[in-house]
Amino acid sequence: IHRQLCLLLNAENIFHSMADILLREEDLKFASTMVHTLNTILLTSSELFQLRNQLKDLKTPESRNLFCCLYRSWCHNPVTTVSLCFLTQNYKHAYDLIQKFGDLEVTVDFLTEVDKLVQLIECPIFTYLRLQLLDVKNNPYLIKALYGLLMLLPQSSAFQLLSHRLQCVPNPELMQT
What we know:
11 helices, mainly alpha
């Protein structure tokens, strides 16, 4: 339904409205589940390609306003907050958030969400993020954030996947021209 609404109406307005509604939600478990669902739709739906591009480039007041609105609601779910930071290329903040995960209760559901985030990082939506791993010098917090996710995961298939990805990060000395 949400994807169809985004096709028929302005996707930015739909997400902005949903985020505003979730800010007032008193049932925090429900808000966390909804944020996770909306985040999955945002990151995987072809209908939201333009909205993702708008969020990647936070140069306009509208895109910054949308990011701030989404961020406030996305904070109901720590892993979705990190994925929003990855989408918007706020890698230092993603790293800072991941450092705070050590203070949270790590549950199976939490680890499952981290696992899904690692799977999403390997999807076409995050191709730009993976390519930024080549620029080690200018993206140290991206690499640190990904290593932080790696350290959170138990040794599983997601751990192996992210570990192999990080092994592909070039040595900065070899990349100098």
